[in-house]
Amino acid sequence: MIIVYVGILYLVFGNLKANGCRHSDLIRNNESKLILGIDIPVFISTLLISSLYAVVVAKIIQRHKQVHELSRDTATRLKHCGITLGILIIVSFTAVLPGSVYSLSILFNPESVDVSMRRITNSLYIIKPLIEPVIYVLRIKKFRRYLKCYCCRSIRVREAVVVFAAQNNVANN
């Protein structure tokens, strides 16, 4: 599917090297094609994925209400899943919404193309897949416990070194 999509984009934009155009001129001249070919599909797919996440959260809430006597572990797991999905939805919209709003503003006002703003919004697109695994890992309680122990251990080691160095300084004077 991705190969077909890239092929369609290639047909729309053509061979960039054959034209001898500068890249920045090409982007400015074809900004509306880029928006319709890339930004709008990304926004639509984000809406679709977020709506599916919302359906899952709704099912979790519905299951929670249907079963009156949930064990404490089940209730905790349901709450944990709902919070994780909520965080993922917020991150998705935070990453995609600025680029989509900027793209729509360019469609209505083509003179307002700003390459630096485009770089910022594209960076947000890249940050999303990088931050999602971190969210999943940090939502694991066992991992957080190990991370806390590791961080506390390194702080204790630093404090011990400082105390030891201070004692040696006092003893040497």
Automatic annotation (TrEMBL):
Tell me the keywords, alphabetical order.
Membrane, Transmembrane, Transmembrane helix
Membrane-traversing stretches: 34-61, 82-108, 120-138
User: Under which name does UniProt file this protein?
Assistant: G-protein coupled receptors family 1 profile domain-containing protein
Tell me what organism the protein belongs to.
Mytilus galloprovincialis
